[in-house]
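>> received
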Amino acid sequence: MGELLWADVREWFDPADAPLHEGCVVGAGVGAWEAVAGMVREQGWAFEERGVTLAVWPAEGFQVNFFENVDGQDVLFDIHVGELQGQERVDLLAAFLRHVGWAFGRRVALAFEGVDPAVRPYLHYDPVADGFVLDREP
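>> returned
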């Protein structure tokens, strides 16, 4: 468990391969959607509401799309890895995942597009240990 390094995720972050990656916080609890909106406002991140999607910019050139979940228990989002090339940009992702993990006190998982991050993540952030875990090899 440790930091999130570009060298560890570079192969997964090829924008030509699969540019959108899915993220989740499983079991965030009732009112997760409202809690996301509160977290975004608290952090002072730019955002735009688009129906059941909340587009958020935790940093310039880094957009995260949160999606309202039907059961309201989980936090679902996606990222575009084309915006996260190099260690400096991966540091922005790490800071974002930390904020989400701390806000909900639960692990935050990432998976490739079309793969359920709750079931088959390639990495996750553990807020208890304050570290990143590679759940599979690149």
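>> The helical segments are 6-9, 32-43, 87-104.
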